[in-house]
Amino acid sequence: MTHDARRYFDLPSPFPMKRGGELHGARVAYETWGELSKARDNAVLILTGLSPSAHAASNDIDPSQGWWEAMIGPGKAIDTSRWFVICVNSLGSDKGSTCPASIDPATGQPYRLSFPELALEDVANAAHAAISGLGIEQLACLIGCSMGGMSALAYMLLHPGSVRAHISVDTAPQAQPFAIAIRSLQREAIRLDPHWNNGQYDDQRYPDTGMSIARKLGVITYRSAMEWNGRFARIRLEAEQRDDNPFGFEFEVESYLQGHAQRFVRTFDPNSYLYLSRASDWFDIAEYGEGSIPEGLKRIQIERAMVIGVSTDILFPLEQQEQIAEGLKAAGAAVEFVALDSPQGHDAFLVDIENYSRAIGGFLTRL
Amino acid sequence: MTHDARRYFDLPSPFPMKRGGELHGARVAYETWGELSKARDNAVLILTGLSPSAHAASNDIDPSQGWWEAMIGPGKAIDTSRWFVICVNSLGSDKGSTCPASIDPATGQPYRLSFPELALEDVANAAHAAISGLGIEQLACLIGCSMGGMSALAYMLLHPGSVRAHISVDTAPQAQPFAIAIRSLQREAIRLDPHWNNGQYDDQRYPDTGMSIARKLGVITYRSAMEWNGRFARIRLEAEQRDDNPFGFEFEVESYLQGHAQRFVRTFDPNSYLYLSRASDWFDIAEYGEGSIPEGLKRIQIERAMVIGVSTDILFPLEQQEQIAEGLKAAGAAVEFVALDSPQGHDAFLVDIENYSRAIGGFLTRL
């Protein structure tokens, strides 16, 4: 059932890519909730982080829980009795959209590393094409979370007039060196796994080790030390949960990371991960402002925005949300800046539903 | 020349280990600066972080720069015209002390994973034995940096009356889950490298990849995002510094990490790294206080202490230094707590010489 709720939008062919090259016969997967109004003025688009699919919430066709289930639905913060909500799977992600694991129509073989270089601007352009294809000229609100927040900035900048209001969630106007270092190391763990084999892996020889290390490093940076002090402290695993390896897992926090890695390793295409990760490093709104973040943001013309960040986020620190808020304000938008103290770090938007519901729900209600 | 300055202290044989087993014919390497007074009351011992050797500073025999060169010498913060300074290489480290790469006299082969389980209490006991062997009953001051700060707490607790004053630098009373997660992932990167081969590597088949990832992850957590924003920003490598790999290094921060890794990978024995890393995770002063950190610290009887930490340290957060300061104070010591805002993170003690000199030099002058 899981995949049935997906719809697909065929991108214009050829679909030109920012850094050169083009895709032929490409598509993006998306899901929707609620009804588009006759005036087509109640559309809310969600752009996602690196790994989630378009299945942000359950719906009639796919009743399984979505990755933002608690936020989307009738009466919830993103109220589907008022809004027509769309979530588009990023171009380059393997959750239904064309990606390095897709068949290249020119060869009949998977693209793998022959997939053209991917930028978040391409993710934005593909999402914009899908929205236009649904007959929506202007979004009532564009919501971008984490990597999706960077894609959202690209979307608004590249498509003037396409967005009325914006909610920026735990994101950044450019990748900073700490985040680049983390992502570079994640990519290196995958690339140095002999089973990655320059992208030519298969189910028998698959870079499980590299993907596992990459995922664990991701989870470490998505959460916060403060949360873990309360949650795991120095709790040991039970004897029967431990193996004989002299350096095997002993603490609950190690087992927690292992669980995250095991759930992820075979469910995300490694090459697609590399492409999206690199795209995140490349993103820099200052490219559009002659090297200046405020000047880049000044080119974004919207009416209102809410910018949300968390003090415990080490991957996208709060100062970066403040830069976005200041920049959009200077560009003429009415901006609300929400600095939260949620202990969960970068992932707070997925966990601290109470505070994010209050902020996002309140903003949408006032639109 | 580099190794000539080392002296060696033969540990009592057998040397019992905290978690079971014993070492035969074991020794620790150490270096000294300055002169021991007739009353033997001017000794300052330095216990190190995970990777440094006993060569903390240059001396007549080895004029090469030491890892704390700017801090140790005549007229410097740790003034060798007044103090007799000793730095002991940790038991289990491959910089001259007996470690998993050493020959097991029982077999004539390297210990590798047959080395007994290592705890920081063993590191402390070995250092204490060396100090006693030098005829020093009581240290004027015990300085512990990073992992060495934890070893120092063990030293003072296990050897009552052996220390008058203590300087605690960027350390913790116990390993917290964030630090455990980082170190566990470093160990896993090494263990999952096929060349690690359950500890049976050699120069031809050596776990370079695992060690490189472990070191890079270390460096990421030893510094701070704030420092890197100023230092690297989004500066790109020159074209000639880049390779053809589609996911090769592009940003200066990536090249910086690569340089650190290359300098480390073949200069630290991987098995010794695993042992010392695990010992750091195990350390918990609360073990000596029926589960309570303050109760554990209360068993440490010293006259004075200075506890220094840095607000940008993500590996040993400032709150942990505050715990040490509060605990030693409750135990009856006169404690100075120094909270610095150095941007360099955990490594600040190696870099922000101005502030560390002022604090440490001031404290030692007042003794």
UniProtKB/TrEMBL annotation, chains A, B:
Residues 43-351 form the AB hydrolase-1 domain. Transfers a succinyl group from succinyl-CoA to L-serine, forming succinyl-L-serine. It comes from Dyella koreensis. Pathway: Amino-acid biosynthesis; L-cysteine biosynthesis; L-cysteine from L-serine: step 1/2. The record marks 183 as: Important for acyl-CoA specificity. The keyword Cytoplasm applies. The lineage of its organism: Bacteria, Pseudomonadati, Pseudomonadota, Gammaproteobacteria, Lysobacterales. Its EC number is 2.3.1.-. It is found in: Cytoplasm. This is Serine O-succinyltransferase. One of its GO terms (molecular function) is homoserine O-acetyltransferase activity.
